[in-house]
Amino acid sequence: MSAGPRTPLRGLARRLPSAAVALAVTLVLTACGGSDAGNDDTAPAGDEGAAAGAFPVTVEHKYGSTEIKEEPKRVVTLGLSDQDAVLALGVKPVGSVDWFKERPYGEWPWAEKLWGSERPEIVGERDEYNVEKIAALEPDLIIAQYSGMKKEQYETLSEIADVVAQPKDHADYGAPWQEMTRQIGRALGKEDEAKKKIADVDARFEAVRGKHPEFADTTLAVADSFEAGKYSAFTSTDPKSIFFSELGFKLEPEIDTLAKPGWNVAELSAEKLDVLDVDRLVWVTSSTEANDRIKAEPFYRKLEVSQEKRDLFVPYQDPDIGAAFSFNTVLSIPYAIDEIEPLLTAVE
């Protein structure tokens, strides 16, 4: 199983307790009707709804395919960053999972205005979902793209609503942001709108590559450290590394070989930090204390990337630069580009 994304408050994936599954199924099968209150306020003002003739639509995914017969009005997102693409397409999820207890909904600057004063019901964290809460929201569509949803969870949730699981042909947490955005757009009946938003973001990346052709000859790695003596380097399948690859940088291939199978992060001891001696090293950290600790590490101080100050320490939050390229969504990428480009090109 993929290690999934890493943040300063990293969680561990767990299966749903069987008792919770059974209780949720009972709740769904015995529920009748329910109120339609709130169905009309799940989309931002001015949203034009799905494209004419978009439904019914069939979306293929890891566990088969799901036919969505009519435009969904109450959407729950279970992927860690799925809410961004849904918001970008004019729909406010009524339920969402938390990002490692950091409660990003409505707080990240790239999504704050789209949420407005509304907040989704929190229905889980990472791959542990509160099925009872999901059922109580009476959704008509459940989306789980950037997720590690299990087949058993998919089957249980399918008793509640249509479910679009993570893309097929990719490891969990390994699908490109473009594909996840297209899947979400198709499920919402807004496929053309999703393609346009993807093209706009791709154009932003292309503009940076054109402005900085030197990036193509620069090998880059992204890393973090949560405690003394323990370090992490992100593989080419992690959103953070993908972001810098799309900016035009070359990634350090050795990191992929050091990661456990199915993981998007290679765990390093201080003695193994030489793999990070690349042309440009980006640290995503949570505090100045962490920065100082890394810089003081004797093995790190021996690296040329450290001695020549080719390392860049980027905050995860305040400002939310690291969070933006950790999300790496159609909404967060423009913010991340605006914030990181000046830092990468600043003259010492």
Detail the topology: elements first, then pairings.
Layout (H helix, E strand, L loop, with lengths): L17 H13 L26 E5 L2 E5 L6 E3 L4 H7 L6 E4 L13 H4 L5 E5 L2 E2 L1 H6 L4 E3 L7 H7 L4 E3 L12 H11 L3 H21 L7 E9 L2 E5 L4 H9 L2 E2 L2 H5 L6 E5 L10 E6 L2 H9 L1 H4 L2 H4 L3 E5 L5 H7 L4 H14 L3
Parallel strand pairs: 3-4, 3-7, 4-5, 7-8, 9-11, 9-13, 13-14
Antiparallel strand pairs: 1-2, 5-6, 9-10, 10-12
Helix pairs in contact: 6-7, 7-14, 13-14
Can you give a write-up of this model?
The chain is α/β, with parallel strands linked by helices. The chain is built from 14 helices and 14 strands. It has helices at 18-30, 82-88, 112-115, 131-136, 151-157, 177-187, 191-211, 239-247, 254-258, 288-296, 298-301, 304-307, 321-327, 332-345; strands at residues 57-61, 64-68, 75-77, 95-98, 121-125, 128-129, 141-143, 162-164, 219-227, 230-234, 250-251, 265-269, 280-285, 311-315. The strands form 3 sheets. A 6-stranded mixed sheet has the order 6-5-4-3-7-8. Strands 9, 10, 11, 12, 13 and 14 form a 6-stranded mixed sheet that branches. Helix 13 packs across helix 14 (332-345). The longest helix is centred in the middle third of the chain and has 21 residues, at 191-211.
